[in-house]
Amino acid sequence: MSDDGREQGGHTGQERVPSRRRSRFPGISSRAYEHPADRSALVALRKLSGFDTVFKALSGLLPERSLRLLFLSDSVRVSDQQFAHLNDMLLDACYILDLEKVPPMYVNQDPQPNAMCVGLDEPVIVVTTGLVELLDEEEMRAVIGHEVGHALSGHAVYRTILLFLTSLAVRVAWIPLGSLAITAIVTALREWFRKSELSADRAGLLVGQDPRASMRGLMKIAGGNHLHEMNVDAFLRQAEEYEASGDLRDSVLKILNVLPRSHPFATVRAAELRKWSESRDYQRILDGHYPRRTEDQDTSVGDSFRESATHYANHVKSSKDPLMKLVSDLAGGAGDLGGRVRRGFEGFTGNPPKDRAQDDAKDDAKDGGKGGFGGGSEAGPRDEPPTDGPSSGDRRN
Length: 397
What we know:
Elements: H1 36-47, H2 51-60, H3 64-74, E1 76-77, H4 84-96, E2 105-108, E3 115-118, E4 124-128, H5 129-134, H6 137-153, H7 156-171, H8 178-208, H9 211-223, H10 232-244, H11 248-258, H12 266-277, H13 280-286, H14 301-318, H15 322-332, H16 337-344, H17 346-349, H18 356-366
Parallel strand pairs: 2-4
Antiparallel strand pairs: 1-2, 3-4
C-alpha cells in the first residue's frame, strides 16, 4: 500500500510524482492519528444530533466568510500557476490521507511563520510567506499535512466554539459568576485545542513520513532559520529538561504559562511527536492497519472517554514533573506527602532547599520501602493507547 513513484492525481487527473516512496491510507479515519483527549471530544461532538447543522449555522455568525473573502482578495491562491510546488504538496497530502475535496490554500504576506486551517463547511488553508521561506521541502510537506489533518478531523469546530464563547464572555461579564463559568469552559476548550495540535502533528508525520523533518520544522519555529547552529537531539533534550527540572513552584508556573495558549510549546510538541513516531500505533498505520471512516458511526463515546482517561492516568504516572509525581504519590497512598509539598514550595519562602535525596530516602523508609512511582523514582515513557507542523490558529507551531 505505497506509492510506486508515479501515482495518478485522483483529485485533478494530472500525474504527480512523489519525491520518494511513501505509504498512503485509503479511507483512513482521523481517529487513527488523533490524540486520545482530542478524539474523545470529537467522537462525542459527532454523536450529537444535529451537530453539523448547529455549528455550521454558528460559524455563519462569525467572521469566517469575511476571512475567506479577505484571503481571496489580498493573498495569493495556490494553484498549478502560483506556488506550484506548494500545490503539488497539497494534492499529495490529500492523496496520502485520502481527502477527496482538496481545500483551497493561500499564501499570505506575513514575516511571522504561521499556518492555519479555518472553516467548518469549506476549510481554507493559509500559510504565511515567513513560513514558506523558513522551511525546506520536507518540513513544508509536514506542515501542509498538518493542516490537511485539521481539515480531515474537523478541528475548525474548536475554533468556532472558542470564538463564540470568547465573544459571549465579554457580553456576560456584568452577570455575577457568568464570566467565570464561560472562562472555565474556554479553558477546557483550549486544552482540547492543544491536543488537536498534537493530532495534526501526527497527521503531518503520516503525510511526510520523515520524523526528523517534522521535528526540524518545530525546531525552526522556535529558533529560526539557523539549522547549522541547531541540533534536533539537543532540542529534544530541552523538552526532557523542561518536564523534569524544578520543584512544585515551577510545575505551577508551567501550568499558568500554558493555560492561555491554544498551542503546546514547540519542544513539547517535538517530544510528543517523537514518542508517537516510535510507537506501535504509528507503525501499524504504516502497515495498513488503521480505523476506516466507514466505521466512525459505530465508535463508542464511552470507550473513547475511557481511552482518554487512561492516557491522562498513564501520563501522570510516567511524568517526571514534580507536581505529577506528587499526584502519583497521592494516588498511590505514599507517606509524608505533607513534607514533600512543604519541600516543593520552599522556593516561595526563600528558605534554602534541604537535601532532597536524603529526605526522599526517609520517605521511602516510611512507605515501607515501596518502589514504583513514589519516593522520587521515575517511570519511563509508555505508548499511548491506539489512536497534533503547524496549526489551525494563532500560532502554527
